[in-house]
Amino acid sequence: MRNLEQRTKALTNYLWSRKRPMETADLRRKAQKLEQKLREENDVLSSLKEDNEMKLQEKVVSALRKTTYHWEELNYSDELSFVYMAARMDGVFAAVFRAMHEIQKRAPDFHPLTLLDFGSGTGAVSWAAHSIWGKTIKEYMNIDRSASMLALAERLMKGISEDQDVCIPGVYFRQFLPVSPKVKFDLVVSAFSLNDLSDYSQRVETVKTLWRKTDGFLVLVENGTKEGHQMLMEARDIVLQGTDKVVHDPREPYVFAPCPHHLPCPRLSPDRPLPCNFIQAFVPLPFSWNPPQKQEIFSYLILRRGSGELEQPWPRVTKPVLCRPRHIHVHLCCADGSLQHAVITPRKHGRDLYRCARNSQSGDRLPVLNPDSELDLGEERGYMAQDHKKNMDKDHS
């Protein structure tokens, strides 16, 4: 394939900058505001002639086209599927593996027998799950509407020889989800697929369907952008609010990770919404243009069936830990739904907690049950960012 390097970079940039499709109601409101603004600017009276009204409508449509994101559905042909594999398979594997590792670490007794991957693409989710629970998983159900993508994923599973069976036993490839509500899976995953749905109603119905299919854990992974994070928070609200008229499983959902609470995300403030994202380093596919190591910036959400009473509500580290002489700066998302900044010292908090915090990274949980009483907390302050950056640059140099 010609220009593969340029095409992989172009596809990666496009997928990273991709936004959700604008809803029809939002588009109408935007058109009404533009029309009102144009009328005021041109001092147009309501009793306009027909040709002037047509010109005004043309201006509104032209302005909408220039200022509105144009979402397009991606049709994965054989060629585009191969470009996607070269561009994204390794990063998807890294992000999904990191999310699954959270389950493996905190729920060691969880041994899934069945896996459902919605929007399976190149099959990276099955590879990641097999590397963690390969001894127990008996069925890997890969669902993708693109026949070309499914054929590529199956070919990757078989290896070089066409006659060879898939190297992971129990892998199946389908274009549609199982219809019966009785068919459930221990582990359900959707990675980088929600933005391929054309509107909010489709995302709602898809998330509800995936939750109905979930018997243990539901894992959702998206780009670590504002759009990706907001789609995950949409999904979180859909499941937690329980708007399903038909309840197929009475067990209540709870947020397993990364949120230590069920409250609204404190990063989604109306004034300055910020994505809750994480970074995973990985060794990329051995193409000549790839560096020895890359980083995947992603957001994820893990929901579990059950009450979650045995879970410790430890706060999660949301930014890189800043180590200074005899003290450490840690930014936390706490169980009360707030973002806090803590300064930890060995004298005040003990050497065990100090060493634990010093060796923590962004995305880790800090083993403190009551941060308000055990740590010196203060609201996060924006003015500290520049000083922190300067100090980090000094440390690296």
Provide a descriptive summary of the structure in words.
The chain is an alpha/beta fold and 397 residues long. The chain has three domains: 4-67, no CATH class; 78-305, 3-Layer(aba) Sandwich (Rossmann fold); 316-396, no CATH class. Helices cover 40% and strands 19% of the residues. The protein has twelve helices and 13 strands. The radius of gyration is 24 Å and the shape is globular. The protein starts with a helix and ends with a helix. The relative contact order is 0.09. The model is unreliable at 44-48 and 380-392 (pLDDT under 50).
What radius of gyration results from the CA coordinates? 24 Å
Q: List unreliable stretches of 5+ residues.
A: 44-48, 380-392
Strand-pairing-aware structural class: alpha/beta
CATH architecture field of the largest domain: 3-Layer(aba) Sandwich
> Could you name the CATH homologous superfamily of the largest domain?
Vaccinia Virus protein VP39
Arithmetic mean pLDDT: 85
What's the end-to-end separation, in Å? 42 Å
Count the E strands: 13
Bulk shape = globular
**Helical residue percent?**
40-55%
How many individual domains?
Answer: 3
Order of helices and strands: HHHHEHEHEEHEHEEEEEEEHHHEH
Strand proportion, as a percent range, falls in 15-25%
Largest sheet: 8 strands, mixed
The CATH class of the largest domain turns out to be Alpha Beta
CATH topology of the largest domain: Rossmann fold
Number of helices: 12
